[in-house]
Design brief:
The chain is mainly α and 245 residues long. The chain has helices spanning 11-25, 30-40, 46-57, 63-80, 84-98, 142-148, 153-158, 163-182, 195-206, 218-242; strands at 111-115, 118-122, 129-130, 133-134. It has a two-stranded antiparallel ribbon. Strands 3-4 form a two-stranded antiparallel sheet. A hairpin with a 2-residue loop joins strand 1 (111-115) and strand 2 (118-122). The longest helix has 25 residues, at 218-242. InterPro entries: OpdG (IPR022085).
Amino acid sequence: MMDIIDPRFSYKEFLELAYARQKKKGEEDAPLIDILKEVFEDTIRPDEAASRVSAFVFSHDDFLSVYSGTISTIVGAAHQLSEEGDLCKLANLMLALSRLGDIRNNSNETLQLSFQRKHYEIEPNRIIQFDDGKIWSDLPHFMALFSEDMQGPTAYLNFGRSEYIAEQEWTNANTFAAFLIHNNSIPPSSFDHLYTYGFRTLADSLEWDARTEEGKDSLNSLRAALRWLKIAAREMWCKSKEDGG
């Protein structure tokens, strides 16, 4: 099971499902899916993709909802994609988004915004922010959404996933988190706290016997833990080469 990749989780399948869902619901996120397609096919750089994502988001009057939907789409892809290369590209896009300049209210009027039953007033020349931070540097909604998905494979089982799918999605999410840290070469990093998930996943895979209640997540965390170790080893090797080792 260590190297099995379910073909349902290829980026091509993800894109096909995303386009089909957009067509069925009549949603307006096709430009976002087009950008993701270019990211996965290496026809666009992460920084250019991030700029286009931002332009897509702020082309809508209800941009807070579109922003939230965009973040949800990226996090959803992080769970569904199994290939390390695809998850690496997705992490690079997220990092590029976090490095975009924060968006300001450039009008002469106070913006009146509503999102999820909350009201926000953004005065002229003020940075647009809601919930837990500024768009884009703080990536509001991402940390809260992704943290909810990093509570262990049992949480996925509680959502009705089969054990195989739960283990796969948990592995994918951990791989994405590891790449967010590994690929971020510009300090300070708002993703450093993700290290705690790596250590916890490693502990969950080794600390308890899988036949005990405490060890119920151990086997389903093993492959995720190995992904953290593999990516960490790659980073150590690169740093060693840079230092002349």
